[in-house]
Amino acid sequence: MSRSPAPAIGGTNYALIHNAIRDAILAGELKQGERMKVQGLAERYGVSTNPIREALQQLQAEGLIEMIPNKGARVRVIDRHQAESLFEVREALDGIIARRAARVATDEDISSLRDLEDQLRKARASGSPKRLGRMATYFHERIGEIAGNDEAVKMRRATANLFALIRSIPAPKGQESESDGDLEEEHSAILDAIAARDEDAAEAAARAHARSSAQRKLARFGETV
Q1: What ranges do the domains of the chain cover?
Q2: Residue of 115, 120, 219, 210 whose CA lies nearest to 176
Q3: Considering the chain, what is the average pLDDT of its residues?
Q4: Would you say 5 and 44 are in contact if contact means Cβ atoms under 8 Å apart?
Q5: Domain spanning 80-221: which superfamily?
Q6: Residues 6 or more apart whose Cβ sits within 8 Å of residue 107
Q7: C-alpha span between 74 and 25 (Å, rounded)
Q8: pTM confidence score
Q9: What residues does 75 pair with on adjacent strands?
């Protein structure tokens, strides 16, 4: 790997190594398809090879890397077809849970979503994409919890790393960031529909948000959506 060495972590704390490599992948520093040599990573992070191997095993379990026979590890590659399939599933999933949330939400549930919406605005103002992404995830997971659909929440979490890999692909020039205004309006539309207990509107808003997100992310593959 011909790049500047990372700050040495030292020691044998595999969790720290795992987090450092994971962050490098999701930041796009270790790119999709890139080979990950154990010795090279050990030198990069100033550790022995044992915690590197443990970290790679965990990252494989999380779906972020692939073990290729006779070649070793590489950062997982997500192609456009896989990305489109993932977004189709997420659109259906989010539509289902938003509809049910509109049916069963209590006043306390609506209040909790309003609080998350406020935190989303603060995250946007902070200029931290990582914080914004985390709060957006909490917002959607909370809708799943309100709907009482634990399986939907689990499915969202199970695919979270794959969506993070898609986000790690550099956006086309001029599209480096998503429109904060669009995101805020889309989240507000979902929340307002749930608060109004309008099941059709809630599902429609959630699906529209998922499609809009898909269009923004699929542009990273350099093809017309």
Answers
A1: 14-75, 80-221
A2: 219
A3: 87
A4: yes
A5: GntR ligand-binding domain-like (1.20.120.530)
A6: none
A7: 10
A8: 0.79
A9: 65
pLDDT confidence band for 38 (50 / 70 / 90): very high
Amino acid at 131: R
What's the per-residue H, E or C state across the chain? CCCCCCCCCCCCCHHHHHHHHHHHHHCCCCCCCCEECHHHHHHHHCCCHHHHHHHHHHHHHCCCEEEECCCEEEECCCCHHHHHHHHHHHHHHHHHHHHHHHHHCCHHHHHHHHHHHHHHHHHHHHCCHHHHHHHHHHHHHHHHHHHCCHHHHHHHHHCHHHHHHHHHCCCCCCCCCCCHHHHHHHHHHHHHHHHCCCHHHHHHHHHHHHHHHHHHHHHHHCCCC
Q: How far is CA 180 from CA 62, 198, 206, 225, in A?
A: 29, 25, 17, 21
pLDDT at 180: 53
The CA-CA-CA angle for residues 161, 163, 164, to 5°, reads: 60
Distance CA 158, CA 156 (A): 5
| Mean pLDDT, residues 5-20 | 68
Q: Tokens 């959506």 belong to which residue? A: 225
Does CATH place domain 14-75 in 3.30.465.10? Answer: no
